[in-house]
């Protein structure tokens, strides 16, 4: 279900500039940034709403209906000819699509502490693998067909997710009420305003996700500007390199049986990610190609370690609540990045997002170190 959802999200992500220009004649780069920001803003508030609904309705029962409505709205996006109408309908579709995020804390509640790295790594690779398929499929459709067809593919994905949810509900081996009951018990213990480690980790990941997503909206255009390969299909492959690297990183981590101690892995990952950003900013397609590999390795480990840190500090009854709060901060970072990307490209060109993202990584690294330095030192001593 996660794979299908990520493929749907990733198909258009690298090609929003081309989609809006070819479909609606809108070539303003700021418009792309505003639209991606609007989608992030929508998810920011939709996910906490679905988490609240899930206290009363089992997750899989809820997903049957939300994915049905999302699929129908995808079909509407395919037919609409109005840009304003597209904004309204597509954002409404994203409201219902956002409900699939409930699966993540649910899966984590089934795991034992000590196995978090493996499970989070697996889910992370599913996300990266979905990005690979989505970017390649999106590039193929944009290059050879009308970009509108992507919404029909997205609708099929939603209907398949609905069918999988229905199948799991009917399966005698799958308990759909357990998480529902636990969520009710823990609801009264959760506060709306985050505090303590949730606030610190939320602010750190806000800057981290801002930096990571700042380079995404216009990466395909940047690649085409420095490369001799003028093809959306090639752009999709280059965009998807971090996903390929994540697959290898997951396989390697399973072979080496890495521990769940996240404190000793974030600093090296952030430093490597910083190097990857500078490599990608070089006006050479070969150096950018290498930078995508370095950046992909760093991003996999950083994302996994930050998530492990969250679930280590939280408790199983609070997973959904705490994750929804962290997710809010992360999406706020993506939202700010989406607004900033179009403005930066419009004023300073396609290279500037890489430099701003590098500065954001430095701020993230410093904030993380000074927030958890005692535990970082303890982890290094034990190592």
TrEMBL record:
<keyword id="KW-1003">Cell membrane</keyword>
<feature type="transmembrane region" description="Helical">
    <location>
        <begin position="119"/>
        <end position="142"/>
    </location>
</feature>
<feature type="transmembrane region" description="Helical">
    <location>
        <begin position="233"/>
        <end position="253"/>
    </location>
</feature>
<keyword id="KW-0812">Transmembrane</keyword>
<feature type="transmembrane region" description="Helical">
    <location>
        <begin position="294"/>
        <end position="314"/>
    </location>
</feature>
<feature type="transmembrane region" description="Helical">
    <location>
        <begin position="87"/>
        <end position="107"/>
    </location>
</feature>
<dbReference type="InterPro" id="IPR050189">
    <property type="entry name" value="MFS_Efflux_Transporters"/>
</dbReference>
<keyword id="KW-0472">Membrane</keyword>
<feature type="transmembrane region" description="Helical">
    <location>
        <begin position="32"/>
        <end position="53"/>
    </location>
</feature>
<feature type="transmembrane region" description="Helical">
    <location>
        <begin position="351"/>
        <end position="370"/>
    </location>
</feature>
<feature type="transmembrane region" description="Helical">
    <location>
        <begin position="265"/>
        <end position="282"/>
    </location>
</feature>
<dbReference type="InterPro" id="IPR036259">
    <property type="entry name" value="MFS_trans_sf"/>
</dbReference>
<feature type="transmembrane region" description="Helical">
    <location>
        <begin position="326"/>
        <end position="345"/>
    </location>
</feature>
<protein>
    <submittedName>
        <fullName>MFS transporter</fullName>
    </submittedName>
</protein>
<dbReference type="Pfam" id="PF07690">
    <property type="entry name" value="MFS_1"/>
</dbReference>
<keyword id="KW-1133">Transmembrane helix</keyword>
<feature type="transmembrane region" description="Helical">
    <location>
        <begin position="60"/>
        <end position="81"/>
    </location>
</feature>
<dbReference type="InterPro" id="IPR011701">
    <property type="entry name" value="MFS"/>
</dbReference>
<feature type="transmembrane region" description="Helical">
    <location>
        <begin position="148"/>
        <end position="169"/>
    </location>
</feature>
<feature type="transmembrane region" description="Helical">
    <location>
        <begin position="197"/>
        <end position="221"/>
    </location>
</feature>
